[in-house]
Amino acid sequence: MFPPTDCEKNEFRHPFGRPTAVPTPAPRLLGLRILLIIVAVIEAFDGLSGASILLGDMSEIPGPGIGGAIIKLHLAVHPVLALAALIFAGIGYVRHAIMALGAVVPG
Fold this sequence. Notes:
Blueprint: E1 12-13, E2 19-20, H1 30-55, H2 66-91, H3 94-104
Antiparallel strand pairs: 1-2
């Protein structure tokens, strides 16, 4: 067809060629973002303080079997997921931040 004019560039096209209005963006959810950032900072601090156990004496971690491996995995992943949630909440990816915090909190 013909190239779009300046006023048609900001419109979506219906499959049958009729212009439709541009959808409005979702609200920024600022209160939820602030709450997620606060929770992520608390979890990141908790995760980073627990991560020092991995660098120290490994005999502090109970059990050489599967239980000890799960505890070590939790100590290693906790700060990473908490920092990811902090970054996601900071840039506005609320859903991603909630999923990252959801993976951190049960442990």
